[in-house]
Each structure stands twice: as structure tokens, then as C-alpha cells.
Design goal:
The structure holds two protein chains of two kinds. By secondary structure, chain A is mainly β. Chain A is 11% helix and 43% strand. In chain A, strands 3, 4, 5, 8, 9, 10, 11, 12 and 15 form a nine-stranded mixed β-sheet that branches. In chain A, strands 1, 2, 6, 14 and 16 form a five-stranded mixed β-sheet that branches. In chain A, strands 7-13 form a two-stranded antiparallel ribbon. The longest helix of chain B is centred in the middle third of the chain and has 12 residues. Classes of the chains: A mainly beta, B mainly alpha.
């Protein structure tokens, strides 16, 4: 009896967070990027809406407050803050109370309450919002996090044989650029003990070729303060690049 | 008037959390210290050591004290300062006098606290040019810094410790003992020359209205103004954080305390001397579309300009710029 109990205990403690106990549903949440339908890798070459070739050297973003939302508006928090390098993606495993959830909701960037008036040195050094954790993703002269970095090199002459030498950079942040996305779930049932997998995918080419196409030959750089309008355009395209897979 | 009792933490029998005594002139409002960073002797000493540590820069040549020199009221006499690898910034180094009272930091006030401000020059490629992981690892390996960090803040040197220690040290930079202060608040009529007295009267007059943006005791209103230095600003100042075109060319009003020692002037160091500054204001700016209406031709006579300059010289606090407790510790 003791051995059986021990085996049961070992089985249920194999999950990443808490054991799948009574009324809990295990979830695998993935965040990934694709380019032209293929898994994204830094250095791969893509074409802008105008046909210019470009490759990414940096593609990373804060994604915050990932929640499963019920019909009545209540939500289960899956993850508070993540800094996702899209060439690696992210995979989390957790358990949520079993039941029905209508949608998944998340924030691109860092929510206003945590962005400009919270001291990053107050976080533990391992936290993604700490000084160390946010290195390269924080504007120190205008306190606040860089929500997304999308930069690399392009060929703006449009010749296939050319090297990609022209730099471009979209570094977007600040409170007005926070975006909250919500996707309805096709399968709303999260049964007890049965694994569900949810993947949030950003389609790289949509960042430039979204509802408001961005021409790299004209608009190739923003660090938000230098060109807020362009940062807003990019952020809207970035938000529009996400799809949900179940 | 209380005596200045700020001491380096060389008294072994005092506990680490014994308060740092910082003299505040009675005509200054009390500074507000953050609850998690009350100034203690150990914290000030740690900040003092970090302030002058050139090893915090990527090439080992630049410290905070490189651009903020006590004898120049914590400026450096340069139009713009060279950082690590000789890279130039684009703004004139501001004084650190009385920073404890600033409501926000950087010229466009994008940083809410003095603690957070320390991160900006450390990370800026044109200033100290370091990564924080490098800094923390280096400081943890320094036995003295590591011991002081634990004594002062109960933890190993990290972002929390560095930002707070530097802020503690900078909050000791209190300047309120100029000739003007002794004349105005100390009843010392001998402290201002006749020229300086006439200049003071001009300064505070309705006609010139200098005190509208530079009121005592800090000689700054901490607000933002476009003074019409340029018809078009490459550095748009406050607009960079508000995204509002009506803030273009606005910068936070600098203090005039110790102004005779902090040449060159303006956000970009473009005016060489106090005489140039007074001439600029006399002429009334270039007429930028959102130039502050207070900036208009004053048509000062030569004598009036000299008197104003004399008054500005009277804002020098020689005790402040010669305070040995601001200097690097001698090892």
C-alpha cells in the first residue's frame, strides 16, 4: 500500500508546477514565431511588402498577463511577465482549474501599472522585469520597458544578389503602445486531468505587412521617441501578427 | 545653524545604520528621502566609492566623478563630456547641487527617481557603457564594496544597492551657503557688492522676471520652457517623453546656484560664458513658435548686464565646492 501511494505521488509530481490534483487541467502554453509558415529563425531572409529582402537579428518581446478567461469575465492567470526571444520561443506547463474558458487574453508589452513608475531594481535579479532581467529592454533615460525589438539588416535596392547591409530597427514601448489581445477558444472545455496545448504564434512577415504596411525604404527606424507614429504603426502590425492554435 | 557633520564612515564604533548628518539650510524645504533609502553613514560611503569608481566604465577610464567634478559644482567645464572610449554625448553635464529636491531627473524628466537615474549613465554607450551583469559580478568580487554593501543594505551589491548608494551620496550635495544666501537670510549686508545688489534687484524685478523661472531658494522652478535658443531644435527635449509637439525644445529649468562655475551653458553647452547668456536673454531669443512669452527682448544696458552677472556670481557657494566630504576617499 505504501509503495502504491508512493508511486501515485511520484506520478502526480512529474508536472512542472503543482500536481494535477482534483479539478485541475494540465496545459502546455507555447509562444512561437513563424516566417512564411515555417518556424522562425534569426538570420532567415524574408520579403517586405515592397519586395525588399530583410533578415532579423533581434526579435524579442515582453508578453504579460496571459490569462484564460471565462464567460463571466473571471480569469485564470497563466503567466504574469515573460520576455520572449522568438528564435527560441517559450513553453510553459501549468495547471488550471478544470472547466470552461471562452478565450485567452494577453498583453503585448508591460501593463501600464508596471511600466514607468515601478523601480526595476526592486525585483529579484532573476525576474524578467529586474535590471538584469530587462537588460537591453529598458530605456534608462525615459524609465520604461521596450515592449518589442524587431531589428536587423535589409537590402533596399531590391537586387537578389545584394548583401543585406541597410540597418532597420523598430524598438517600441511606452504606455500608449500597450496592446491587449484576446482570442476566442474553439474548444472551451478544459477537462480534469486531460492535457491541452495552446500556442500563440506571431507571423513575422505580418509585422511589416500588416493592415498598415511599412516600407523599409522610407520608415526604417524608430526608438519610439524619435518617431512615435511609426512605433504605433509597427505595434499595431505586431499585434495583428498573432494567431492562436489549439 | 547646525554644523555640517557629514563624515566618512571611519568611526568603527558607530553602527552601520547610524544616520548621515546632512545639513539643510533652514530656508530650504525638508528633502524627502525614500523609505527604503534613508541616508546612513555606510550608505553614503558606499555611494561615494561607487561615484568615483572608473572600473564601472567599460574601458576603466570614466566614473560619475569624471563629468561631475566637485570644484565645478559637479559639472566638468566641457560643452559635452567624453564617455568610455572617448564617445561624446550630446548634452552638457548638469550640476548635481541640490538634486535631492528634483522632482524628476534628466533634462526632459523621463526618470522619476534619483535612484533610477543612476542606471542611465551606467548603461549609455556614450557614458559608462557597461552591462549590469558585468558590474554586479565585478562589485561582488571587490571585498570592500561587497562588505560595505552588506553592511549598508544587507545584501550583495546589485542594482538595488548601486542605485540607492549613489543616490544617498548625491543627496548630500546640498548647496545653500552662497553670498546671496548670507545676504538674504543671514543678514550679512557685506556679502554682496553694490553691483551684485543692483543685479539682484534687476533679477527679481517684474521688468526682467528672471525669478519667474528661477525663483529662490533653488533658482529653478523645475518646470519646462522653450527659451528660443534655436528656431529648430535637433534635440527636442521634453517632447521626447510626452510626444507632444507643443513640448518641442522645452528643457527643465536648470538651477542658477553656483552658475559662475558651471560654464558652458544651455542644454548643449552652446553658450560659453555668463555674459553670453545675459546677452542672449537681453536679445530675447530667436522667436521659436512656442517660445515662452517671458523670453522677450529686455534691451539691457551694458551696466545692467554687468550687474546681473555680478549677482549670478554671488550664487556661488564656496563651502559647497570645496567640501572635502564630496571628494574621492583617499585609500
Amino acid at each position: 500500500m505504501l509503495i502504491v501511494s508512493a508511486l501515485v505521488l511520484i506520478f502526480f509530481s512529474g508536472c512542472e508546477t503543482s500536481p494535477v490534483g482534483e479539478g485541475r487541467s494540465p496545459i502546455t502554453l507555447k509562444i512561437a514565431a513563424e516566417g512564411n509558415g515555417q518556424p522562425f529563425r534569426l538570420g532567415d531572409v524574408y520579403h517586405s511588402p515592397q519586395g525588399f529582402r530583410y533578415r532579423l537579428e533581434t526579435y524579442r518581446s515582453y508578453i504579460s498577463m496571459i490569462e484564460l478567461v471565462r464567460e463571466d469575465g473571471s480569469a485564470e492567470l497563466l503567466r504574469d511577465f515573460s520576455l520572449v526571444d522568438f528564435d527560441e520561443g517559450m513553453e510553459l506547463r501549468m495547471n488550471v482549474p478544470s472547466g470552461h474558458y471562452d478565450s485567452i487574453r494577453f498583453v503585448l508589452g508591460v501593463p501600464v501599472a508596471y511600466n514607468k513608475h515601478v523601480d526595476p531594481s526592486q525585483y529579484a535579479n532573476s525576474h524578467v522585469l529586474s535590471v538584469q532581467g530587462s537588460e537591453g529592454m529598458f530605456w534608462y533615460w525615459n524609465s520604461g520597458y521596450i515592449f518589442v525589438k524587431f531589428d536587423g539588416k535589409a537590402d533596399l535596392e531590391g537586387l537578389e544578389g545584394n548583401a543585406l547591409l541597410e540597418p532597420y530597427a523598430f524598438h517600441c514601448g511606452d504606455d500608449p503602445l500597450v496592446r491587449t489581445l484576446s482570442f476566442p477558444l474553439e474548444n472551451t472545455w478544459f477537462p480534469r486531468g486531460r492535457q491541452r496545448e495552446i500556442t500563440l504564434v506571431t507571423q513575422v512577415e505580418k509585422c511589416l505587412d500588416g493592415d498598415d504596411p511599412i516600407d523599409l525604404n522610407v520608415d526604417f527606424i524608430t526608438h519610439t521617441t524619435g518617431d512615435f507614429a511609426l512605433a504605433r504603426r509597427f505595434m499595431d502590425n505586431f499585434a495583428g501578427s498573432f494567431i492562436l492554435r489549439e | 545653524m547646525a554644523l555640517v557633520l557629514l563624515q566618512a564612515c571611519q568611526t568603527p564604533d558607530l553602527p552601520p545604520d547610524s544616520p548621515a548628518h546632512i545639513h539643510i539650510p533652514v530656508w530650504f524645504p525638508d528633502p524627502v528621502y525614500p523609505d527604503d533609502n534613508m541616508p546612513t553613514r555606510y550608505r553614503v560611503e558606499l555611494g561615494r566609492r561607487l561615484f568615483y569608481s572608473t572600473s564601472l566604465s567599460s574601458d576603466g577610464t570614466v566614473s560619475c566623478g569624471s563629468c561631475h567634478v566637485p570644484s565645478a559644482a559637479f559639472t566638468d567645464g566641457r560643452r559635452v563630456s567624453p564617455g568610455a572610449h572617448g564617445r561624446l554625448g550630446r548634452r552638457n553635464a548638469p550640476t548635481l547641487a541640490n538634486v535631492a529636491w528634483n522632482p524628476c531627473y534628466m533634462m526632459e524628466c523621463g526618470v522619476p527617481t534619483l535612484e533610477l537615474q543612476a542606471l542611465a549613465p551606467l548603461a549609455d554607450s556614450a557614458e559608462m557603457d557597461r552591462t549590469f551583469s558585468e558590474i554586479f559580478r565585478q562589485l561582488e568580487e571587490d571585498p570592500l564594496i561587497s562588505r560595505l554593501s552588506r553592511a549598508a543594505y544587507g545584501r550583495a551589491p546589485d542594482a538595488f544597492v548601486i542605485t540607492r548608494a549613489l543616490a544617498c551620496f548625491q543627496r548630500t550635495f546640498v548647496s545653500g551657503d552662497s553670498g546671496y544666501d548670507r545676504y538674504r537670510f543671514g543678514g550679512r549686508a557685506d556679502q554682496l557688492s553694490p553691483e551684485a545688489v543692483r543685479g539682484m534687484e534687476l533679477f527679481f524685478s517684474d521688468r526682467l522676471a528672471c525669478a519667474r523661472c528661477h525663483p529662490a531658494p533653488f533658482f529653478t522652478d523645475f518646470d519646462f520652457h522653450n527659451i528660443g535658443l534655436y528656431a529648430r531644435y535637433d534635440d527636442t527635449g521634453r517632447e521626447r517623453v510626452t510626444y507632444n509637439p507643443e513640448d518641442s525644445g522645452k528643457f527643465r529649468t536648470p538651477t542658477l546656484r553656483n552658475i559662475a562655475l558651471t560654464a558652458p551653458y544651455m542644454h548643449d553647452g552652446s553658450l560659453e560664458s555668463l555674459e553670453d547668456v545675459v546677452t542672449f536673454y537681453s536679445e530675447g531669443g530667436v522667436g521659436h513658435r512656442i517660445q515662452d512669452p517671458a523670453i522677450r527682448p529686455l534691451n539691457l544696458t551694458g551696466a545692467e548686464q554687468r550687474d546681473l552677472v555680478a549677482f549670478l556670481h554671488s550664487l556661488t557657494d564656496w563651502n559647497f565646492v570645496q567640501n572635502h566630504t564630496f571628494l574621492p576617499l583617499e585609500e
